[in-house]
Amino acid sequence: MPWEDGKTRYVGKGTVALADGREVPVVAALVLKLDPETVPGFTYDRHTTWVGSIHTDTDDNLWDASPGLLTLPDGRAGTFMATSGPPDLVGVSGIGPAPFGPLRDTDAHWEAPEVAVADAPPLDGDEADDAQRAAEERERARRRGMTAEELQGRYRVRWIPD
After folding, report:
1. Does residue 98 contact residue 50 with C-beta atoms inside 8 Å?
2. pTM given for the model
3. What per-residue confidence (pLDDT) applies to 162?
């Protein structure tokens, strides 16, 4: 849907496929950042066309999607990389065509990368201490069940109403 700035956005439910094959219910707030037809020499390997935020109320870690596959209720899907944020509320950068908005001729030749399998052991010293983990769990518990408006108010995320 176009917003007052003229950009096409999607706010609503979806599902993210994690590297281990699990599917996680999410709420997504996404924006079409770039129209491929306006960029001379456009290629998906050099340009990101969509960005946004993805939130889950589950205990799943959205960073485990690398890259992730976001599927929307209409069946369209898009590949993304998490770029920032805690495990349950990540900023994302799309890879390839957006799963919302108009379909483009440039989308037909895109082949999504395979989902990586997370089988590497954690790096030494990469583990959070107990106090940090406890603080992150308290914050995550506060977010659980929040509406889009509550998330926007608390985190200054620009969620676009339906």
Report:
1. yes
2. 0.69
3. 36
Phi-psi region of 102 (alpha: psi -120 to 50; beta: other; left: phi over 0): beta
Token pair listed for 144: 């659980």
The Cα–Cα gap between 89 and 138 comes to: 14
Beta pairing partners, 11: 29
Separation CA 103–CA 139 (nearest Å): 38
Q: What is the DSSP string of the chain?
A: -B-TTS-BEEEEEEEEE-TTS-EEEEEEEEEE---GGGSTT--TTT---EEEEEE-SSS--GGG-TTEEEE-TTS-EEEEEEEES-TTEEEEEEESS-SSS---GGGGG--PPPPPP--SPPPTT-SPPHHHHHHHHHHHHHHTT--HHHHHHHH---PPP-
Task: Name the nearest CA neighbour of 151 among 33, 83, 56.
Answer: 56
Query: Could you give the C-alpha distances from 129 to 90, 94, 119, 156, in angstroms and in order?
Result: 21, 32, 23, 27
Q: What is the pLDDT of residues 29-50, one digit of tens each?
A: 998 887 767 777 766 656 668 8
